[in-house]
Amino acid sequence: MSALATKLRQLRADAGQTSSIASARSPITVLPERSAAKSKDTSPSTHKTLSPDLRRLLQRHAQLKRGPAYLASNDRDVPGIELSPGLRYTEANVDWLAPPDIVDAAFARMESIHHRRLLHFDTETTGLAGGTGTRAFMIGAADWHDGRFRIRQLTITSMAAETAMLRTFASWLADDTVLVSYNGKCYDSPLLKTRYRLARLPDPLTGLGHLDLLHPVRRHWKGQWENCRLATAERELLGVVREDDLPGSEAPAAWLTYLRGGSARNLRRVLAHNNQDLKSLAGVLLYMARLPHQ
């Protein structure tokens, strides 16, 4: 039970106790229906007898039952094309690094991998706690395709579009795909597996190779850097400094605001943040692949 509900119940109980004490001091006269209605009209309004705390809590409780109110925004443009109702797709092909045919993955204690098998992926979600209540509202994936770095992003603009998003992402995976992520083994991959299971869809992730860059980064630079976040790794290794970047912690609010009729501005910033995450994944991967073996 939430703290708000607990406090509300306590205040209601207190108000009830006050009424019973007052009743004990004076006998109650039962009025006929017409007289009761007249009495209701002429007596002071009920809300005037409530304490300010109880009145505020009752108002807040009513607002929560109705849901948060947002002013409708005219800025509702989410980039991309609509693959199906509520599912937006964006694709960009950029000149970003030049991978060798075979990527040396010894730094991650894995065998060498052809760069065409690599799929960098990152999700934006409704929270960091995980569990069945957390869902991905955006999945970004990037690979080298026809000599360029291809960035594909799926964004859902309605709850009902999640299944379509999961099916589309599954179609991008092959049996020999090797996933590249940053803390994806502990967070992104388990989260998506849960969403596939809840949607009663086959899980396409189990059995795939997975190169999680967080762990080798920690082995090399833990204690030397202030932390081993992706933002730190991209700054230290690639010289990437983000400007006007929306912190990942604000991504859930950006999506929920849009769902409730608010502006799409911050949702577009989430797309830009996810885009840079994918580029940084590839950059950190190739940087570490060139490190001398230890």
What does this structure look like?
With about 290 residues, the chain is an alpha+beta fold. Helices cover about 40% and strands about 15% of the residues. The chain has helices spanning about 5-25, 35-40, 50-65, 160-170, 190-200, 215-220, 230-240, 250-260, 265-290, and strands spanning about 80-85, 85-95, 100-105, 115, 120-125, 135-145, 150-155, 180, 210. The strands form two sheets. A seven-stranded mixed beta sheet has the order 1-2-7-6-5-8-9, sandwiched between helices. A two-stranded antiparallel ribbon has the order 3-4. Helix 7 crosses helix 9 (about 265-290). Residues about 15-45 have low confidence and may be disordered.
Features:
globular; 9 helices; alpha+beta; two-stranded antiparallel sheet; seven-stranded mixed beta sheet
